[in-house]
C-alpha cells in the first residue's frame, strides 16, 4: 500500500472509531511492529478556533494496513505549538 493511501485509511479508522475530525498527520514511521502514525484530532471546537482542543493520537497499523491499536497521548490547545507543549511536558 502506498503511503498516501495508508494515511488516508488511518484517518478514516480513527474518525470512525472516535467520531472526531482528523486535523493533521504529525508523524509516520515504519519498524518491525508495523506502521506508526501520529494524528491530531479535533476534540472540541471553540470560538475563537485558537482555543480548539486537539488530541494527539498514536496509531499502529499492521503491514497490510489493518488497525492494531490506537491511543490518545495528550491534548493541547490549537494555539499552543507542539514544541511549546512538548517542552511543558518535560518540565
Describe the structure concisely:
The chain has 91 residues and is an alpha+beta fold.
Keywords:
alpha+beta; 27% helix; elongated; 91 residues; 4 strands; 4-stranded antiparallel beta sheet; Nuclear Transport Factor 2, Chain: A
Characterization of this structure:
By secondary structure, the chain is α+β, with helices and mostly antiparallel strands. The protein has a single domain (about 5-90), classed as Nuclear Transport Factor 2, Chain: A (Roll), CATH 3.10.450. Helices cover about 25% and strands about 45% of the residues. It has helices at about 5-20, 80-90, and strands at about 20-30, 35-45, 55-60, 65-75. The chain has a four-stranded antiparallel sheet, covered by helices on one side. The longest helix is centred in the first third of the chain and has 16 residues, at about 5-20. It is elongated and about 40 Å long. The N and C termini lie far apart (about 40 Å).
Terminal Cα span: 40 Å
The average pLDDT value, as a whole number, equals 90
Radius of gyration: 14 Å
- The CATH architecture assignment turns out to be Roll
Mass-distribution shape: elongated
What is the number of domains? 1
- CATH topology-level name: Nuclear Transport Factor 2, Chain: A
Put simply, the count of helices is 2
- Residue share in helix: 25-40%
Strand-and-helix sequence, N→C? HEEEEH
CATH class, please? Alpha Beta
Question: DSSP strand (E) fraction?
Answer: over 45%
Please list the strands of the largest sheet in the order they lie side by side. Answer: 1-2-3-4
Largest sheet composition: 4 strands, antiparallel
Assign the structural class, choosing from mainly alpha, mainly beta, alpha/beta, alpha+beta, or little secondary structure. Answer: alpha+beta
Q: Give unreliable regions as ranges.
A: none
Count the beta strands.
4
